[in-house]
Amino acid sequence: MTVALHPSLESLARLVGTWTGSGHGEYPTIDPFDYDETVTFSHTGRPFLAYAQSTAHAGDGRPLHVETGYWRLARPNWAEVVIVQPTGLTEVTEGAVAAGTIELRSSAMARTPTAKEVTAVERDFAVDGDTLRYTLRMAAVGQPLGTHLVAELHRVD
Amino acid sequence: MTVALHPSLESLARLVGTWTGSGHGEYPTIDPFDYDETVTFSHTGRPFLAYAQSTAHAGDGRPLHVETGYWRLARPNWAEVVIVQPTGLTEVTEGAVAAGTIELRSSAMARTPTAKEVTAVERDFAVDGDTLRYTLRMAAVGQPLGTHLVAELHRVD
């Protein structure tokens, strides 16, 4: 049964689905790496999207990362997003939604005592038909805000 | 394929599975309500449990709440947990793991601008064989820390 998207989510409708593709990761403190990724945005008719992501190493296929969270709209052109990572990190971001682009900026980062220190995150998304591109910049472990992830995904569902 | 639980998660092993049951909600600012709930704790062999929860109104079955997050152990008797809620709330809790009990206390709460103000959460879990009981206390919308949820679930998988 297909449930209608909640009317408040209209400006995020193009995200709904499953996306796969590949990305590149780098940061001053780590060796660069390439990854394969699956992202899903799903809904149950209520006024939020459920977001889930997983990546695997492009070379040997070992699992690298997962994260999950929720997206909603404070108003049609402004998204509020909460994301958690199993390493003990929580992230509150918000930002402008325009035609095909979403620019999220962290307003609060919190973490468990053993989690890596990440103090700011910026996530830019661009949806062009069945292609989803994103970049993620972060300030972490004493480094200034800088590019960490760049990926291009394609709709598979 | 069944993957072995990561050795670091041994003291949380009894949580792994799917649980269903019912609960009661109350708070000074709302009408009391009863709910049906499903909770899952799953893993992929990595050093964390994925946690997901959903509730429905006990009377009319309408969806009430979902939340998701990750649990891991800083050491065998100490859990670190991050949870997000679609209303724009993130929660960092930690606490003691003993034989069949886990007592989580919030160390950081963060939220999006439109989320309800929740400033502290305490989650107590007790696992006795195939029964999982929990209570959730919170300080929210100007109220002191008080009981919000009490539930008893039974293992179904």
Write a structural description.
The structure is a homodimer of 157-residue chains. With 157 residues, chain A is mainly β. Chain A has one domain (7-155): Lipocalin (Beta Barrel). In chain A, 0% of the residues lie in helices and 68% in strands. Chain A contains no helices and ten strands. In chain A, strands 1-2-3-4-5-6-7-8-9-10 form a ten-stranded antiparallel beta barrel. In chain A, a hairpin with a 2-residue loop joins strand 6 and strand 7. The relative contact order of chain A is 0.19.
- Name the helicity range of chain A: under 10%
Q: Which class do the helix and strand fractions of chain A yield?
A: mainly beta
Choose one word for the global shape of chain A. Answer: globular
Total count of strands of chain A? 10
> If helices are DSSP runs of H or I spanning 4 or more residues, what is the number of helices of chain A?
0
Looking at this protein, list some descriptive labels.
homodimer; 157 residues; mainly beta; Lipocalin; ten-stranded antiparallel β-barrel; globular
SSE inventory with pairings:
The structure is a homodimer.
Chain A: E1 17-27, E2 30-42, E3 49-57, E4 63-75, E5 78-85, E6 89-98, E7 101-111, E8 118-128, E9 131-140, E10 146-155
Antiparallel strand pairs in A: 1-2, 1-10, 2-3, 3-4, 4-5, 5-6, 6-7, 7-8, 8-9, 9-10
